[in-house]
């Protein structure tokens, strides 16, 4: 994924042009993150013993002097997922270097994991918004907010309904993190048609077809299923 500020320039793959790498299962070394015992021993508290890696990312937030396109709007990750129950899903997000408000650390609204899933859409930002960076339009702006200052290797585990986002990167460096959404293999898929998730399903299916020639992807479930991998225990229900 390229940052929206570079979308129209010539594409030369490098640290400076890639905002995000997804589907790390295609890379043995990067996917090893999702199998680390140091991570899975905490994941298991949320998912139980049968653990699937559902969605993986390495995010390389670029320096952003003025456009603020590097911000990630406040959102709930469950918006992107066609499976439930939410209490058996957890995100592990690991800082690959020091992160604080200067380079766009995570910002979270504590306690919001008890809220239902809210409708998401693109925010109206002047400088532009990155592809699929949907946000919640109507969250409580006065809600207490915590900025997670983290050191390299620190990991935070959080619920898929927790409202969170990240700020713009005002430094010259690229802020790197690696993350994986894990779910219990006891989870089940849902059909998101007719729900607030229909907009993201449409976008993901169109993107899978257009950019990856993935003609068999007809819904969000197909897309997620093609990347899901068992990392511990047994593949029970999924
Ligand atoms: O790492 C970030 O900047 C935020 C990532 C995030 O919230 C997400 O991808 O859901």
Characterize the structure shown.
The chain is of the alpha+beta class. It has a single domain, classed as Jelly Rolls (Sandwich), CATH 2.60.120. Helices cover 15% and strands 25% of the residues. It is built from four helices and 14 strands. It has helices spanning 28-31, 37-47, 198-212, 220-225, and strands spanning 20-22, 51-61, 72-75, 83-84, 89-95, 106-108, 120-121, 135-136, 146-147, 155-158, 164-166, 175-184, 188-189, 229-232. The strands form four sheets. Strands 1, 2, 5, 10, 12 and 14 form a six-stranded antiparallel β-sheet that branches. Strands 3-11-6-9 form a four-stranded antiparallel β-sheet, with no helix packed on it. The protein has a two-stranded antiparallel ribbon with strand order 4-13. The longest helix is centred in the C-terminal third of the chain and has 15 residues, at 198-212. It is globular. The two termini are 28 Å apart. 2-oxoglutaric acid is lined by residues 57, 59, 61, 72, 77, 106, 164, 166, 177. Pathway: Lipid metabolism; fatty acid metabolism. Keywords: Dioxygenase, Iron, Metal-binding, Oxidoreductase, Vitamin C. Its EC number is 1.14.11.18.
């Amino acid at each position: 994924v390229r940052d929206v500020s570079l979308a129209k320039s010539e594409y030369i793959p490098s640290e400076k042009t890639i905002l995000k790498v997804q589907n790390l299962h295609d890379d043995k070394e990067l996917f090893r993150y999702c199998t680390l015992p140091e991570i899975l021993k905490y994941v298991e508290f949320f998912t139980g013993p049968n653990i699937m890696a559902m969605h993986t990312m390495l995010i390389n937030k670029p320096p952003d002097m003025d456009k603020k396109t590097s911000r990630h709007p406040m959102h709930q990750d469950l918006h992107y997922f066609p499976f439930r129950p939410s209490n058996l899903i957890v995100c592990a997000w690991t800082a690959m270097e020091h992160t604080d408000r200067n380079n766009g650390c995570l910002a979270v609204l504590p306690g919001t994991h008890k809220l239902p899933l809210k409708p998401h859409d693109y925010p109206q930002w002047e400088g532009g918004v990155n592809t699929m960076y949907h946000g919640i339009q109507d969250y409580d702006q006065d809600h207490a907010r915590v900025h997670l200052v983290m050191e390299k290797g620190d990991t935070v585990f959080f619920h898929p309904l927790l409202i969170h986002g990240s700020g713009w990167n005002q430094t010259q460096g690229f802020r790197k993190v690696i993350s994986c959404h894990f779910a219990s293999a006891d989870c089940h898929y849902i059909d998101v048609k007719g729900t607030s998730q229909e907009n993201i399903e449409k976008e993901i299916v169109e993107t899978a077809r257009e950019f990856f020639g993935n003609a068999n992807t007809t819904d969000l479930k197909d897309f997620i299923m093609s990347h899901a991998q068992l990392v511990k225990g047994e593949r029970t229900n999924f």
